[in-house]
Amino acid sequence: MRRKVAPDSTAMVAGGGGGGATEAEQAQLFSAIRNGEDLGPFVRRAFASGRPESLLSSLRQFARSKEAEIEDVCKAHYQDFIRAVDDLRSLLSDVDSLKSALADSNDALQSAAGPLLAALDAYLEARSIAANLAAALRAARLCSRLFALLARANEHLAADHLYLALRAVAAAERDLLPAAPHPTIRRMLLRLIPAVRAHAERKISKEFSDWMVQIRVASRHLGQIAIGRASAARQREEELRARQRQAEEQAHFRSGSTTATPTLRDHSYSLRVEEDDDWAGDDADDLAAAAAAASSDEGDPGLDLTPLYRAYHIHKTLGLEERFRRYYFENRKLQLTSDFQVSSLTPFLESHQTFFAQIAGFFIVEDRILRTGGGLIARPDVDALWETAVTKMVSVLEDQFSRMQTANHLLLIKDYVSLLGVTLHRYRYAVDPLLDVLSKHRDKYHDLLLSDCRRQVSEALAADKFEQMLMKKEYEYSMNVLSFQIQTSDITPAFPYVAPFSSSVPDLCRISRSFVEDSISFMSHGGQLDIYPIVKKYLERLLGEVLDGSILRLIESGGLGVSQAMQVAANMAVLERACDFLFRHAAQLSGIPLRIAEKGKREFPLKKSRDATVELLLGLLRKKIDDFLLLTDSISWLADSPPPNGNDYSNEVYIYLDTLVSTAQQILPIQVLRRVLQGVLSHISDKIMGLFLSDAVKRFNSNAVMGIDVDLKTFESFAENQSHLFSDSDDSGANELKLALLEARQLVNLLMSNNPENFLNAVIRERSYNKLDYKKVVAVTEKFRESSDRLFGTFGTRGAKQNPKQKSLDALIKRLKDAS
């Protein structure tokens, strides 16, 4: 039905029915309502002014105005609404028919689809059950795989296969832990996996600790084996070098070749090529030899790096690789530090091999680990350990060498240190500081060696009776003569053989040869190739200071007789040949060919003692001759007739000299014998001159002079009889011996001359009296009187004619006095 249209609000406002509200206020209110603004201010103002009714009136008025507008709109569209309602009514009838059709279709569908829906529900229920079963099977298979891994891990742990156990645990953690079917299993895995890893770490750490204990013993054994192999290789090399030198020298002596001489470095290279196969120069042989020795010794644990590599691999598997590397390095460093401890209770000579073998084995092991350990230790770490070890070894050697007072002890340690250097040099360790220490103490070693040799030489000389040495067997001859090349002939003598030297000569040769060999042993393998000049210098010190000095002290002691002094002089000739052998021996051991070592003339190192020995022998012989010359007191200087066979002393001296020569020619060299005989005869000449000049002889006559002439002829005959000893030139030796008597002979010739005044003739004097001194001639001729000029003889011969010889002598004396 139609609504009643309200009156127009504008008309009401215009008619003043607004309850007192002004038009302006209404306009503002209406404008605010149309714009959707907040009406709060209008409400507050109405209540503040006490006129809310006017506001309500205005609002009602506005509502009525809107209703009127709505009514106008409805009136304008009334026909359209009617048509729409009609359309809706027709639509409702269609909807009713459609609804009945849908109901019929639904009934048909329900009847047809009921069994299908039941089947669908069964299917969905079956699918849900299948899904649950599949999830259960997956969980079962997962649990089965998990438990299989855990069971395998348990088996590996029981069998001590830690790596396989850790791999099984890691696979369980990686593949199965995220998909654990139940929280309980997850919690179990989260608890057990760290426990297994902790167990593996503890177990492998214990094994590594046990290995660290065992490796010290194994390293010492390995070091001893490696150094022993180096020693054996050095021995083989020296034997090869000796054979090579011998072959070269034999070829040189056979062919007299002057081809270029190979150096020691050339020898070294050739010997390296010929080395045995068991010295390959790497650690494989050392480790193999150590393993073989360990297998034969049940108490030796042997060298086994498997526990170390296993521990490193397990820690790497646990992700603790860097920590294990640091742990290993620190523990090995502590082990090395403990190896440096030198016991003060045990002499270093007894413990030095163990000390150096321990260090050698340590670094051989480290080199092997460096090359096969897969980065367990780095080269800088090994180098740092080696520098520490070298510094400590140098300090220990310096300290121990400074305390040693025995050359042999120092040599033993030096040899072992040099073998240590050779061994570790093959593993590319720098061993120069060790060799420098050995070179630094070279002088001290040789001083100690010289001191030992000085003591041995003194003992050998003191024990020698200085009698010719008797050798009954050929081996004695070989040991005392041939081994030092002091034989004078290549023909082996018949035995028993009496040598021309005494027992001290082979002893001194042995001492000197031992010195050379010890010196070579100390100098060899020290990094220096040409050692011969140094060895030669020390050998010259031995010969010049020790042997020469000891023999000089023996001579100066004054305890030697003529036969002993003669034997010492004979020994000196043999020692001269021995010195040549020693220098050749030193050259051969130094690797220097003989043709180089023998270049240049070498002065005899024992020259001082040799000369002193000859002077001592001369002094003793002169003293012996003086004893015989005491018989000259029985000479009748104013005899009535000359002695037919000379004076008695000359015969005694002749017999003594003849006996002396028969003994001396068997042992003394010709040069020494000649020098001795010259000295003795010269002394006899001086003594005869002294007889004429003696104050005890106031006067002598021609008979006494003729007796002295016979004596001189006896001595000259002795000199001529020795000409067979001096076969180097025609009568040169005999003439030299006779020249020793020349002064006495010229004086006797002058006294026996019929015209002594010829002495004043310069030509005759130079030819026949060149050894005579003016003053001696004056002193002797003043004492000479002819046989007829007896004491008081002038009383019976007063007025007789003077003897022409005496007159010539008086003229000679007068003119010599005037000249002087």
TrEMBL record:
<dbReference type="InterPro" id="IPR042045">
    <property type="entry name" value="EXOC6/Sec15_C_dom1"/>
</dbReference>
<feature type="region of interest" description="Disordered">
    <location>
        <begin position="236"/>
        <end position="267"/>
    </location>
</feature>
<dbReference type="GO" id="GO:0060321">
    <property type="term" value="P:acceptance of pollen"/>
</dbReference>
<feature type="domain" description="Exocyst complex component EXOC6/Sec15 N-terminal">
    <location>
        <begin position="59"/>
        <end position="227"/>
    </location>
</feature>
<dbReference type="InterPro" id="IPR048359">
    <property type="entry name" value="EXOC6_Sec15_N"/>
</dbReference>
<feature type="domain" description="Exocyst complex subunit EXOC6/Sec15 C-terminal">
    <location>
        <begin position="433"/>
        <end position="783"/>
    </location>
</feature>
<keyword id="KW-0963">Cytoplasm</keyword>
<dbReference type="Pfam" id="PF20651">
    <property type="entry name" value="EXOC6_Sec15_N"/>
</dbReference>
<dbReference type="GO" id="GO:0006887">
    <property type="term" value="P:exocytosis"/>
</dbReference>
<dbReference type="InterPro" id="IPR046361">
    <property type="entry name" value="EXOC6/Sec15_C"/>
</dbReference>
<dbReference type="GO" id="GO:0006893">
    <property type="term" value="P:Golgi to plasma membrane transport"/>
</dbReference>
<protein>
    <recommendedName>
        <fullName>Exocyst complex component</fullName>
    </recommendedName>
</protein>
<dbReference type="InterPro" id="IPR042044">
    <property type="entry name" value="EXOC6PINT-1/Sec15/Tip20_C_dom2"/>
</dbReference>
<dbReference type="GO" id="GO:0090522">
    <property type="term" value="P:vesicle tethering involved in exocytosis"/>
</dbReference>
<dbReference type="GO" id="GO:0006886">
    <property type="term" value="P:intracellular protein transport"/>
</dbReference>
<dbReference type="GO" id="GO:0009860">
    <property type="term" value="P:pollen tube growth"/>
</dbReference>
<keyword id="KW-0268">Exocytosis</keyword>
<feature type="compositionally biased region" description="Basic and acidic residues">
    <location>
        <begin position="236"/>
        <end position="252"/>
    </location>
</feature>
<dbReference type="GO" id="GO:0005829">
    <property type="term" value="C:cytosol"/>
</dbReference>
<dbReference type="Pfam" id="PF04091">
    <property type="entry name" value="Sec15_C"/>
</dbReference>
<keyword id="KW-0813">Transport</keyword>
<dbReference type="InterPro" id="IPR007225">
    <property type="entry name" value="EXOC6/Sec15"/>
</dbReference>
<comment type="similarity">
    <text>Belongs to the SEC15 family.</text>
</comment>
<dbReference type="GO" id="GO:0000145">
    <property type="term" value="C:exocyst"/>
</dbReference>
<feature type="region of interest" description="Disordered">
    <location>
        <begin position="1"/>
        <end position="20"/>
    </location>
</feature>
<comment type="function">
    <text>Component of the exocyst complex involved in the docking of exocytic vesicles with fusion sites on the plasma membrane during regulated or polarized secretion. Involved in polarized cell growth and organ morphogenesis. During cytokinesis, involved in cell plate initiation, cell plate maturation and formation of new primary cell wall.</text>
</comment>
<dbReference type="GO" id="GO:0009846">
    <property type="term" value="P:pollen germination"/>
</dbReference>
